[in-house]
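Tutorial, part two.
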Amino acid sequence: MLDTTQSDTVAPSEERRGCLFALSQPPLMIFLAVIGCLLLMASLHDLLLL
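Running the prediction step on this input gives:
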């Protein structure tokens, strides 16, 4: 006899998603990469050229 209970097949309706899920989104990573490159260029400009 098979036991087909609902509790085994029902997924939790609201999963908590943390910071790693947010960082895995491509638009956010592109935005952070652009901001990081701008900060890097500004700091290198200040250190090497001024």
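The helical segments are 6-9, 19-23, 26-49. In part three we will examine how such features are distributed along the chain.
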